[in-house]
């Protein structure tokens, strides 16, 4: 905040919030003689990282449409972005040369990754969360290749690791302990899980085609796309889903809290069971408090939903707002440089007649 407008971008606020969450996520080293690599409550505090990632991505997708920016609504934003952004990379030139239909489809893909796929962050099916992880990483890597935004995209990828589990990371490191043996016929649970996963992908594809009018033009050999809904329809949809999304987050957090409490009960030894439960109570209280105050900046995307929050939550948020432990997000709200990229020109003269 010392830098005022020069160091007051959303990624600076994101760094403050992620840094504060790191305090809660870091292992608690109070009893040195006991291993502190993992605690039963770790999944509770780590859930806050996933909630931060959800708020960041979902709000960033929503504000592109609520801002009424004609380039985002016309799906032409990326025809300007690569050459008018602050610091393009060499690859940005090649991205700018891509055909217009592909640029428009890229905008559609951005909407899907930022608005629809974040809902899968809280999916009970592991493969859906992995799909969401790789989708977010793909978007961030493409942004890194075509533009220089310092630590922002790398930090977002770090936040996306909250979607992974130990088993998947173990595969990367060659330490996977689970042996996947193919069984036939599959169990009922496995069958229902696969059926639900395929249904989710089908629903996501159907929603994308209907919302953005995706249609293959065989004659011109391109993919047509357009926004197939109005601003009023989108605002009504946003108003209808904002509070249910809060409820979805609450249910997901409740599951993590109850699961952590069960793990505390499974700890061996009466003293260690009590010690684990005490830590669970402390960190759960902190996590619920962080979740509660984060609802205020999250519901900024819909004012009516924000007004429906319990007044006590607004008071809690006002008490800590100056510390920026929770923030509102909405990256690339409007596409800049549409009318040309503004440049600063410095001129000097020795004789006050001819200027250089």
TrEMBL record:
It holds the Pfam family LMF1. One of its GO terms (cellular component) is endoplasmic reticulum membrane. The chain crosses the membrane at residues 14-31, 43-63, 105-125, 137-164, 237-258, 278-301. One of its GO terms (biological process) is protein maturation. Keywords: Endoplasmic reticulum, Membrane, Transmembrane, Transmembrane helix. It is found in: Endoplasmic reticulum membrane. Residues 8-169 form the Lipase maturation factor 1/2 N-terminal domain. It is a multi-pass membrane protein. InterPro entries: LMF, LMF1/2_N. Belongs to the lipase maturation factor family. Involved in the maturation of specific proteins in the endoplasmic reticulum. This is Lipase maturation factor. It comes from Alca torda. The gene is Lmf2_1.
């Amino acid at each position: 905040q010392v830098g005022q407008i020069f160091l007051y971008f959303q990624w600076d606020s994101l760094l403050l919030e992620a840094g504060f969450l790191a305090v809660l996520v870091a292992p608690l080293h109070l009893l040195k003689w006991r291993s502190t690599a993992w605690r039963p409550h770790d999944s509770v505090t780590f859930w806050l990282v996933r909630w931060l990632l959800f708020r960041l991505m979902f709000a960033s997708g929503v504000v592109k449409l609520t801002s009424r920016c004609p380039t985002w609504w016309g799906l032409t934003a990326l025809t300007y972005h690569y050459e008018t952004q602050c610091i393009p990379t060499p690859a940005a030139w090649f991205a700018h040369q891509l055909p217009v239909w592909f640029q428009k489809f890229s905008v559609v893909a951005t909407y899907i990754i930022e608005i629809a796929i974040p809902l899968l962050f809280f999916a009970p099916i592991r493969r859906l969360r992995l799909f969401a992880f790789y989708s977010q990483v793909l978007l961030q890597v493409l942004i890194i290749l075509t533009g220089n935004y310092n630590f922002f995209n790398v930090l977002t990828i770090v936040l996306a690791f909250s979607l992974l589990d130990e088993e998947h990371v173990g595969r990367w490191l060659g330490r996977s302990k689970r042996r996947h043996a193919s069984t036939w016929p599959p169990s009922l649970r496995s069958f229902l899980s696969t059926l639900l996963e395929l249904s989710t992908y089908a629903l996501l594809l159907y929603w994308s085609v209907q919302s953005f009018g995706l249609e293959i033009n065989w004659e011109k050999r391109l993919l047509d796309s357009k926004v197939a809904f109005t601003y009023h329809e989108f605002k009504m949809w946003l108003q209808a889903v904002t509070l249910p999304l809060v409820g979805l987050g609450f249910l997901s957090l409740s599951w993590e809290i109850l699961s952590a409490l069960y793990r505390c009960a499974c700890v061996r030894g009466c003293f260690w069971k009590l010690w684990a439960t005490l830590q669970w109570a402390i960190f759960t209280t902190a996590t619920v408090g962080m979740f509660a105050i984060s609802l205020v900046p999250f519901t900024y995307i819909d004012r009516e939903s924000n007004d429906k929050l319990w007044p006590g939550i607004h008071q809690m948020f006002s008490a800590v707002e100056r510390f920026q432990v929770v923030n509102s997000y909405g990256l690339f709200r409007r596409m800049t440089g549409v009318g040309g990229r503004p440049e600063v020109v410095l001129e000097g003269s020795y004789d006050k007649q001819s200027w250089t």
